Amino acid sequence: MTAPYDVLLATLPDGTEREQSLPDLDRRPDPWESSMQATCECLSWRGALDNLERRHAEDALGETVYRDFPVRTRSAVITAHTLLERGVIDPDELAARMAAVRERLHRE
Question: Which residues form the Nitrile hydratase beta subunit-like N-terminal domain (predicted)?
Answer without folding.
Answer: 30-104
